[in-house]
Amino acid sequence: MEDLSGIPGAESWTTVEPVLKGWSSDRKFYVQDQAGRRLLLRLSAGNTYHRKQQEYEGIQRFNGLDFPMSRAVDFGLCGVGEDGEQSVYMLLTWVDGVPLEECLPGLPPEEQYRLGAEAGRILKQMHIIPVEEELPHWEADMQSKILSRIREYEDCPYHLEGDQQVTAFVRENIGLIHNVEKVYHHGDFHVGNLIYTPEGKIGVIDFNRWDIGDYAEEFYKLQIFDREWSIPFAAGKLEGYFGGPPPEAFWKRQALYVAYTSLYSIKWSIPYGAADIQDMMDRCRLALKDYDNFRIYIPRWYPGTDSNILSKRLK
């Protein structure tokens, strides 16, 4: 059992259950107190205090917006572990509902599209928040990061047929990352971190990968996750964000981000074993198919196979 001493009100908690879902290194718990209030407790190592404090402040920033999401309740240090160090705790409101990825495929295509459009409008709200930080070297740093990760992929033992055309595409188009609009990212905004609320709305959770960057970069996981779960949702998310079809400049940068992350994900998956490596290779193959080995920059699945649904534009 975790040592929760130091968390105000913890003595009134009647339920503390582990939440095992997700890739985060945080230890997560569903909490309910005597008054019936439902909360999410996240615990992390004491040496993450500064980073977690920034995350908590980022959540508070997003909490100024009006949609269902995890809301900041409390933050600080608690307990003492076996190593003699305290843990960082973050207490957030619990978002009621079911994981969107569990129910989305069973919903009618029209509802999948509607939820995607709602998710896109939510993401747009998040991106409109003015960025306070000055990041004069962001573009140069991002270009360097992308090229470095392409080299890491080339040096790893797993490769796909046709990958040389993809690496060439990345190198030839790296200059597209120039003078981009920088926004606050959720950092992991896809079906796996969205909730289908009892009211039929989109709820947003898991802000632990937040950062600042190109607004277009936030969309590369649309290809990796959303497109696999639901093409109507993926198309709706794009059109909800842009209020219609995305502009050409977006598609070109999106293709660049998808190309490099699809290849790098193979190298990234190596420590997790053969099953994850195969999964990432399959996802990369799908991206290469969708983008015709990156001979095109608008994926074949857009606007989708059901033109009666996906040709709808938001009023």
TrEMBL record:
Transmembrane segments: none annotated. Residues 15-251 form the Aminoglycoside phosphotransferase domain. InterPro entries: Aminoglycoside_PTrfase, Kinase-like_dom_sf. Signal peptide: none annotated. Gene3D superfamilies: 3.90.1200.10. It comes from the Bacteria. This is Phosphotransferase.
